[in-house]
């Protein structure tokens, strides 16, 4: 992807399928950040997922908190936050 971006003279001339005009100015920066993260973490490839990060976080939270009664936790937090 980085090499492909070099073919364009500016963000306005980016012609990538699915890339909206609003995202064009920040796309190259995002690719640069992602590339640096992949290099640092020694990640060789990424796979597309049609799920979003927030969906993954919600699924993770569902598993972590399925046995916790949030009402009890809120009452406990409220008692701890009231000065004696």
Overview in brief:
With 84 residues, the chain is an all-alpha fold. Helices cover 55% and strands 0% of the residues.
| Number of H/I helices | 4
Q: Can you write the helix and strand succession as a string?
A: HHHH
What structural class do you assign from the helix and strand content?
mainly alpha
Give the terminus-to-terminus CA distance.
Answer: 59 Å
Low-confidence segments: none
Mean pLDDT: 82
The largest pleated sheet is described as: none
Q: What characteristic shape results from the CA principal axes?
A: elongated
**Secondary structure: number of strands:** 0
Give the % helix. Answer: 40-55%
